[in-house]
Amino acid sequence: MYPLIIIDDEEITRIAVSGYIQKKHPQFQVSGIFSNGADALRFMRENPVSVVITDIRMPRMDGLELARHIYENHPGVLTIIISGYSEFEYAQKAMRYGVVNYLLKPLDFEELSRNLNDAQKHLDSLKLETDVNEEEIQLFFIDLISGMLNDTKEAARRFEQLSLEGVISDYKGCLTTLTLEKNDTLTQWKYGREKLAVSLLNGLRMLLPGYSVYHLFRSGMRYYFIVLSTQELPAFNPEELSSALFHLLHFDCNLQIQPSFENLETLSAPSAPLDVTRRNIRPENAGRDDDIVIQKAMSYIQAHFQDDLTREDVADAVFLSSAYFSRFFKQKTGLSFIDYLTTVRMQKAVELLGTRMKVGEIARKVGYQSRNRFFINFRLYTGYNPTEYRRQILRMEDEHEDTEE
């Protein structure tokens, strides 16, 4: 949901607009209602806001002044102004401050709905763009750090491309290495090393709220994480963070935290990735480890194919990011995740079609809630729809029995 606030000095308008939005537009959360712009700005300093709906004439701070403050201090927030007919020219002036639209009083709620639908489309597109940007950055650093991107010219080219496209320029980030040395307490820790990686990731996310924290991979007892944010990175002290993680995880071991670089801006020169590329942090038995990861992923898919299984589910099970897992799985098996999942499901469906089970039940048994989707995939896999395939099986069985007689 996108947080939205309403500012109007008329209580009846505030109540009416808030009630309508909560009933008709659940994709927006009315997180604040104010009678003046000054109170609204104080709220925005401490809380995220995506959309502002404000009257233009109010005491203390009018809508035009509020729009100017939002434009200068909260870029990306969408402002919709409510205006009376007599203030039409006044509302026009607000457009220079990024106001996306104005609504005339008496308020037309259908027009309000159209504006909110447009706002949602815009916010959805921004969110998608942000998600794609984070994935591109993450893939770049995964390839760089894991040794897959060992050509320095290619590394520099990809970094420069990301910078030119504005993907990296808005982010501040750090690669963090957590090294644990074995001792009796850690060896006896009941959850094992894989669970430890998840706990470390969750611990970092708790200690760094509001930041995107990713677990890249583990090499021996070293765990590699990347922290991304459009804000300044927290000036955490490694010793303090280490102590906090001990407290969260309830175990005692020697934990060292080493940021490899403090800020993405330090990689501004095209040759800068070379320093990171030279780090040989891939274990010697990486190939064997890769095979183990793939085998675990395949086993997980075979055990859960009947569920509504997603790429993210399998990636979490093998402690990889979703984007990296997708590329890694295709590289190692020659099949995409969805192709392999479909193959497993179809093989089971073929087996079940030899029984008396109904086709609709078979579809559900192999993970399809949609009968149509099951039919489409089955035809693509076998060349027949399930009913035709069952007839083929029965005919072949009859022919086999006749031959034996």
* Average pLDDT: 71
SSE order, one letter for each helix or strand: EHEHEHEHEHHEHHEEHEHHHHHHHH
Find the structural class using helix and strand composition: alpha/beta
- Give the strand content: 15-25%
Q: Summarize the biggest pleated sheet.
A: 5 strands, parallel
Could you list the spans in which at least 5 consecutive residues all have pLDDT below 50?
181-191, 250-288
Secondary structure: elements and pairs:
Blueprint: E1 2-7, H1 11-24, E2 28-34, H2 37-46, E3 51-55, H3 63-73, E4 78-83, H4 88-94, E5 99-104, H5 109-146, H6 152-164, E6 172-181, H7 184-187, H8 192-207, E7 212-219, E8 222-229, H9 238-249, E9 254-261, H10 273-277, H11 286-304, H12 311-317, H13 322-333, H14 337-352, H15 359-365, H16 371-382, H17 386-404
Parallel strand pairs: 1-2, 1-3, 3-4, 4-5
Antiparallel strand pairs: 6-8, 6-9, 7-8
Helix pairs in contact: 3-4, 5-6, 8-9, 12-13
Output the keywords.
five-stranded parallel sheet, 405 residues, 55% helix, Arc Repressor Mutant, subunit A, 3 domains, 17 helices, alpha/beta
Task: Characterise this structure.
The protein is of the alpha/beta class and about 400 residues long. The protein folds into three domains: about 1-105, Response regulator (Rossmann fold); about 130-285; about 290-400, Arc Repressor Mutant, subunit A (Orthogonal Bundle), CATH 1.10.10. It is built from 17 helices and nine strands. It has helices at about 10-25, 35-45, 65-75, 90-95, 110-145, 150-165, 185, 190-205, 240-250, 275, 285-305, 310-315, 320-335, 335-350, 360-365, 370-380, 385-405; strands at about 1-5, 30-35, 50-55, 80-85, 100-105, 170-180, 210-220, 220-230, 255-260. The strands form two sheets. Strands 2-1-3-4-5 form a five-stranded parallel β-sheet, with helices on both faces. Strands 7-8-6-9 form a four-stranded antiparallel β-sheet, sandwiched between helices. Helix 3 runs parallel beside helix 4, helix 5 (about 110-145) packs antiparallel against helix 6 (about 150-165) and helix 8 crosses helix 9. The longest helix is centred in the N-terminal third of the chain and has 38 residues, at about 110-145. It is elongated. The protein starts with a strand and ends with a helix. Mean pLDDT is about 70; it is low at about 180-190 and about 250-290.
